[in-house]
């Protein structure tokens, strides 16, 4: 794989919180249309990687490129904004805006941030709600929706920005087991449509089915990076084996 | 069915408070019969003066009406200043944050009366902007003098409300590419607003009570009238005037305080 | 500096006034704060007994003092209590003088005002007391009184310390209003000095700064006390 073709390129990034070094030199590249899953024990820095990619956390050292944006060189919130238009994020806690309806949550940013036409955005938002199977919940407030429904609205909100890549940060971790399925189904459909995405997840079965590639992280490093069949059936590193032995 | 009057605890309490009020009324009645009626008659005659600053009640030039006007004007100024100050104390940039903190703490730690007095002398009688003379009459000075400490207290309310918004809201908005002012406008302030309202109302009641201090600026507020126009009344009658004035403040502020407390409980109840 | 003239500060007479003013302010604040705290504790204890008539009387007291201007309370105490009969005859001059001095009036009315605020603070402190703690105290055989002083007050006072800080600084600031009834505290002497020197602006700026410094010291001290008394894992935003 040639490096220059990759949509996202991460090279040897380091990040510390105080004395604690969370990322100790992570490198990863993601091609267009690729779905990459990051798995690993908690505290291994999975979510931190995602937050570094869209600049929510500044890195201490290393190189990050997303499309034309050299993320590590962006210094201010202002410089980050064009990047954020290309990279959307879905959070573990959904983080919907509680004072707006589902439809408004999806429409807000495209209108207020991207300056798109309201009518066009509304049309797009309604289609997206249909896509996540919540067409009938357009006027519901987040507080009236179940966790799984809120998360699907959050996914629609991310899609409404028409990003080139979406980062999924443990999006099913806070959900009831029965609603996990509907969210995973939605994500799988998006991946099948060719969405580029990076998913941090605890759902091994899902990672195996949906991902083009799986990365196993442990203590701030990517220990193993392989297609799911190889990583799950034939792990090379003893740490990967140990982890999979515990969770599978 | 056996009808017994089982009163709840709150009901019994209300009954006692009613009793206290009845006792006060009875005392007033007894006092009135013992000669107090004459004094009350004086109060009644002068009541328009106390309320509006005019003997016949119109036009409004002072009195308790001026106190209320002053409280509304000051609150308007304080709301704008306090919101700006509160948000400034949360700014990323230390050049904005640290001065904002200093101003907030300075104003919060200065006595209202002293600040009001200081404003009286610090503010000029008038300012000239491009040949246009803007006078600073005592009323304007009183508005500013009362608005400053209120703004400092309000900035704390704003700060608390903004901080109480879950950090995920900031993260989500930032990830969607919002600018900081946009995040405040579209995401944070609309949510923080309802949490601010009880504190805002409490402050308004506090400010109204503090308008009594404005008498030092020489405006014709209810206390100035009490101490000047009514000073020639007999000492005995003055007691009744004082009681009336105390009651005016209480009657205006108590309902606001009660309403604020109800809202506070309602806001605490919802966990959005 | 800034065209301000502070040369009058060199005059020992004015220095003396300022120092006396500060001392009297501190005295007034210390006295009324102590009484206010005592009233607050007793009031909160009274409320915790859940006796309906006591509850009603305390609530009445709190609401009246919270919702009227302290300045008016002080003026009322000063001008009208003597009119209503609290008078005595000066044995030397034979003249009728008010029984209570201006200082005493200010002290009483500030104590009651602060006390009303303190009752609220202590009450909310007691309200956050976990039921399990009261029950534990009861099952260990503590009397109501002992439970209040030995268990509830030590815990509740830590919880309500932040609001108590607010009340005490508020009360300290309110002492300046005693100048209106001629109590010779700092604000009163400020008036004396600028009446003498006509340096109103300079005097008021200085007085403002002195007050801010004093109040800041008080609130800093209280925050240190808070930090010192913090119980690991108790209170703090729960």
3D architecture notes:
Chain A has helices at 46-53, 77-86, 102-112, 118-131, 147-160, 177-192, 204-210, 228-233, 238-247; strands spanning 8-17, 20-30, 35-39, 61-66, 69-70, 87-90, 165-169, 196-200, 213-218, 221-226. The model of chain A has no long low-confidence stretch (mean pLDDT 89). Chain A has one domain (3-247): P-loop containing nucleotide triphosphate hydrolases (Rossmann fold). In chain A, a hairpin with a 2-residue loop joins strand 4 (61-66) and strand 5 (69-70). In chain A, helix 4 packs across helix 5 and helix 5 (147-160) runs parallel beside helix 6. By secondary structure, chain A is an alpha/beta fold. In chain B, helix 2 (63-88) packs antiparallel against helix 7, helix 4 packs across helix 5 and helix 7 (180-210) packs antiparallel against helix 9 (235-269). Chain B has 9 helices and 2 strands. With 272 residues, chain B is mostly helical. Chain B has one domain (48-269): Orthogonal Bundle (MetI-like fold), CATH 1.10.3720. In chain B, strand 1 and strand 2 (132-135) form a beta hairpin. Helices cover 75% and strands 3% of the residues of chain B. The longest helix of chain B is centred in the N-terminal third of the chain and has 44 residues, at 9-52. Chain B has helices at 9-52, 63-88, 94-108, 112-122, 138-163, 167-175, 180-210, 222-227, 235-269; strands spanning 126-129, 132-135. Chain B has a two-stranded antiparallel sheet with strand order 1-2. Chain C is mainly alpha-helical. Chain C has one domain (7-229): MetI-like fold, CATH 1.10.3720.10. In chain C, 73% of the residues lie in helices and 3% in strands. Chain C has helices spanning 12-48, 52-66, 70-83, 102-127, 131-139, 144-159, 161-174, 186-197, 200-229; strands at residues 87-89, 96-98. Chain C has a two-stranded antiparallel sheet. In chain C, helix 8 packs antiparallel against helix 9. The termini of chain C are far apart. The mean pLDDT of chain C is 85. The chains are: A alpha/beta (248), B mainly alpha (272), C mainly alpha (238).
């Amino acid at each position: 794989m040639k490096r220059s073709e990759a949509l996202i390129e991460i090279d040897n990034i380091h990040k510390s919180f105080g004395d604690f070094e969370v990322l100790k030199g992570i490198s990863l590249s993601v091609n267009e249309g690729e779905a990459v899953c990051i798995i690993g024990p908690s505290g291994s820095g999975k979510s931190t990687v995602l937050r570094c990619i869209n600049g929510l956390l500044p890195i201490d050292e290393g190189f990050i490129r997303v499309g034309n944006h050299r993320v590590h060189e962006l210094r201010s919130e202002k410089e980050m904004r064009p990047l954020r238009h290309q990279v959307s994020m879905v959070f573990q806690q959904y983080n919907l805006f509680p004072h707006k309806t589902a439809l408004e949550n999806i429409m807000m940013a495209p209108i207020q941030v991207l300056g798109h036409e309201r009518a066009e955005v509304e049309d797009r938002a309604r289609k997206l709600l249909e896509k996540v199977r919540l067409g009938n919940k357009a006027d519901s407030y987040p507080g009236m929706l179940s966790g799984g429904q809120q998360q699907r609205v959050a996914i629609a909100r991310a899609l409404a920005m028409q990003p080139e890549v979406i980062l999924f940060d443990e999006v099913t971790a806070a959900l009831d087991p029965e609603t996990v399925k509907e969210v995973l189904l939605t994500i799988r459909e998006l991946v099948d449509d060719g969405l580029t995405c990076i998913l941090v997840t605890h759902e091994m079965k899902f990672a195996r089915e949906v991902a083009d590639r799986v990365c196993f992280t442990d203590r701030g490093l990517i220990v193993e990076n392989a297609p799911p069949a190889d990583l799950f059936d034939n792990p090379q590193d003893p740490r990967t084996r140990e982890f999979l032995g515990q969770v599978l | 069915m056996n009808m017994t009057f089982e009163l709840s605890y709150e009901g019994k309490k209300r009954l006692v408070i009613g009793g206290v009020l009845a006792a006060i009324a009875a005392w007033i009645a007894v006092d009135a019969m013992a000669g107090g009626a004459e004094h009350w008659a004086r109060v009644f005659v002068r009541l328009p003066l106390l309320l509006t600053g005019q003997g016949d009640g119109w036009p409004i030039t002072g009195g308790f009406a001026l106190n209320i006007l002053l409280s509304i004007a000051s609150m308007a100024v304080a709301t704008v200043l306090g919101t700006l100050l509160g948000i400034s104390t949360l700014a990323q940039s230390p050049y904005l944050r640290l001065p904002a903190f200093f101003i907030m703490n300075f104003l919060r730690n200065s006595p209202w009366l002293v600040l009001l007095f200081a404003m009286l002398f610090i503010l000029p009688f008038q300012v000239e902007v491009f040949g246009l003379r803007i006078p600073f009459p005592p009323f304007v000075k009183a508005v500013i003098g009362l608005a400053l400490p209120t703004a400092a207290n309000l900035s704390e309310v704003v700060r608390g409300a903004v901080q109480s918004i879950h950090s995920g809201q900031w993260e989500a908005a930032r990830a969607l590419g919002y600018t900081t002012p946009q995040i405040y406008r579209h995401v944070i302030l609309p949510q923080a607003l309802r949490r601010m309202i009880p504190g805002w109302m409490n402050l308004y009641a506090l400010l109204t009570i503090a308008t009594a201090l404005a008498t030092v600026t020489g405006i014709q507020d209810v206390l100035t009238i009490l101490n000047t126009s009514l000073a020639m009344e007999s000492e005995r009658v003055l007691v009744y005037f004082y009681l009336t004035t105390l009651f005016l403040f209480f009657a205006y502020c108590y309902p606001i305080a009660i309403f604020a407390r109800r809202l506070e409980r309602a806001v605490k109840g919802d966990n959005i | 500096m800034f065209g301000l003239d502070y040369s009058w500060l060199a005059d020992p007479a004015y220095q003396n006034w300022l120092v006396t003013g500060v001392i009297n302010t501190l005295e007034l604040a210390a006295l009324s704060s102590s009484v206010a705290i005592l009233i607050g504790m007793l009031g909160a204890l009274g409320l915790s007994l859940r006796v309906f008539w006591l509850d009603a009387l305390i609530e009445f007291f709190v609401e009246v003092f919270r919702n009227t201007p302290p300045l008016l309370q002080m003026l009322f105490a000063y001008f009208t209590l003597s009119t209503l009969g609290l008078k005595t005859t000066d044995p030397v001059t034979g003249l009728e003088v008010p029984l209570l001095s201006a200082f005493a009036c200010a002290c009483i009315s500030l104590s009651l005002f602060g006390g009303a605020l303190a009752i609220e603070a202590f009450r909310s402190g007691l309200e956050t007391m976990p039921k399990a703690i009261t029950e534990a105290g009861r099952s260990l055989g503590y009397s109501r009184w002992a439970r209040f002083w030995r268990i509830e007050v030590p815990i509740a006072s830590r919880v309500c310390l932040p609001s108590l800080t607010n009340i005490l600084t508020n009360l300290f600031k309110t002492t300046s209003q005693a100048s209106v009834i001629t109590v010779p505290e700092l604000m009163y002497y400020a008036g004396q000095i600028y009446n003498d020197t006509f340096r109103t602006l300079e005097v008021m700026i200085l007085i403002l700064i002195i007050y801010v410094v004093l109040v800041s010291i008080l609130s800093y001290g209280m925050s240190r006390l808070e930090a010192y008394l913090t119980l690991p894992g108790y209170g703090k935003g729960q």
